[in-house]
C-alpha cells in the first residue's frame, strides 16, 4: 500500500515512521518522493490501524493506494534495494 500525508495546515506532513512500523501487520516501510510505501499483512485489519495512528498524529491522507505485490516489491523486500539501485 502507498500513501501520502498532510498536516493540519495542509502542508506536506512529516511522518515519524516508528509508530507506523510498530502497527501489527506492517512488515516494512520506506519513503520515495514523499510517498510512504508499506508492505502489510491482513490489509483489512492493518489499514484501519494505520488510519487511526495517522489521525492521532494530526496527519491527513492526501493519497492512498493499495496493490498486490509485484515481482519488484518482492525483490525489494528480500534485498532491501531496487533493481535500479546500483
Label this structure with key terms.
single chain, 33% helix, 28% strand, globular, 86 residues, four-stranded antiparallel β-sheet, alpha+beta
Describe the structure.
- It is a single chain.
- With 86 residues, the chain is an alpha+beta fold.
- It is built from three helices and four strands.
- β2 and β3 (35-40) form a beta hairpin.
- The longest helix has 14 residues, at 43-56.
- The protein is globular.
Quick recap of the structure?
With 86 residues, the protein is an alpha+beta fold. The protein has helices at residues 17-21, 43-56, 71-79; strands spanning 2-6, 26-32, 35-40, 60-65.
Write the layout of secondary structure elements.
Blueprint (H helix, E strand, L loop, with lengths): L1 E5 L10 H5 L4 E7 L2 E6 L2 H14 L3 E6 L5 H9 L7
Antiparallel strand pairs: 1-3, 1-4, 2-3
Amino acid at each position: 500500500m502507498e500513501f501520502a500525508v498532510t498536516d493540519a495546515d495542509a502542508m506536506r506532513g512529516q511522518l515519524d515512521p516508528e509508530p507506523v512500523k510498530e502497527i501489527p501487520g506492517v512488515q516494512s516501510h520506506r519513503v520515495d518522493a514523499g510517498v510512504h510505501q508499506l508492505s502489510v499483512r491482513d490489509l483489512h485489519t492493518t489499514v484501519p490501524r494505520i488510519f487511526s495512528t495517522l489521525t492521532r498524529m494530526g496527519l491527513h491522507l492526501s493519497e492512498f493506494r493499495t496493490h498486490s505485490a509485484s515481482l519488484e516489491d518482492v525483490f525489494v523486500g528480500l534485498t532491501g534495494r531496487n533493481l535500479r539501485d546500483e
